[in-house]
Amino acid sequence: MNTRCSNLSYRIAKWFCPVLLLFGLLQMPVISAEELRLTSDGRIKRDPVFIDNGDTLVYVVDESSDKMRLMRRNMRDGSTEPFHKNAPKSEFSPAFSANGQYYAFIQSRGNLSLALVIRELQGVKSSEVKPAGGFSGMRSPAISPQGKRVLYCFPEKGSQQIWSVNMEAQDRKALTDGQGIDNWPAYTPDGKTVIFGSTRDGNYEIYSMQSDGKEVKRLTNSPMQDIRPVISHDGKRIAFISQRDGNRELYVMNLDGSGLQRVTRHPDRDDYPAWHPDGKRIALVSERAGRTDLYMVEVSP
């Protein structure tokens, strides 16, 4: 009798648990369904970011099997051109200061050797954090709203941490120093808070901290990865990519982690979100039928 009850309970649980999971996913708010396709070449892309008040979208495309190139798209007429016309090596992860004075990016210097480059947009001033010895490299630059500091990620002490330098690539400081991998730092518009992703608790989650590295707070709690957080231009919301439903989709939440909402719902992958300055749209890289392009989706206020 006990064996029969046990088998029956197992069969009920086997059927009922997936139903509960599906019901929970369906109950999560979905705030956008339409997509506007921005590119159609199908090549692998990453790292979109808006500049010029939303008139220009800078992004990275795989130009060849061994070279990534920074591109700019005119959002008014749809034309595209290289951001650096004569770039000899791979360049990716562009970041721009809010005042339009500086930009930063990662540049390849050899096999798995990456440097952080900081430049003036309208000048000739340029500085860099050079690669360390061996296979090493910087990741994910972010410029403070005042254009005074640049954050980047680097695995100097074993695990990847977040570092800060001034615009001359000097005065280097560590903002994090713990377990796991820290990545994708982003400043709030007032420069007081930094949002970032980390595996410090065993799985990629999203965290916040003061701009000096103090008062770290965990914002998400999912058994699957939450990655690539970006902050809206008004500083009120965070867009990020999550695999909490088993597939990479776009989500948004408030700056404190509340108000979680799912934006995309597609069997293919969505990745690399970028807020439009109007706060109503998000550009992202999406894979559709095996082809990778830039799309724009609308989000509710």
Q: Can you offer a commentary on this structure?
A:
This protein is mainly beta and 301 residues long. The chain has 2 domains: 1-30; 33-298, Neuraminidase (6 Propeller), CATH 2.120.10. Helices cover 9% and strands 48% of the residues. It has 1 helix and 24 strands. It has one helix spanning 2-27, and strands spanning 35-37, 45-51, 56-64, 67-74, 80-82, 91-96, 102-110, 113-120, 126-129, 139-143, 149-157, 159-166, 173-174, 182-187, 193-198, 205-210, 217-218, 226-231, 237-242, 249-254, 261-262, 270-275, 281-288, 291-298. The chain has a 4-stranded antiparallel beta sheet with strand order 1-24-23-22, with no helix packed on it. The longest helix has 26 residues, at 2-27. Mean pLDDT is 89; it is low at 1-33.
Give a brief rundown of this model.
By secondary structure, the protein is mainly beta. It folds into 2 domains: 1-30; 33-298, TolB, C-terminal domain (Neuraminidase), CATH 2.120.10.
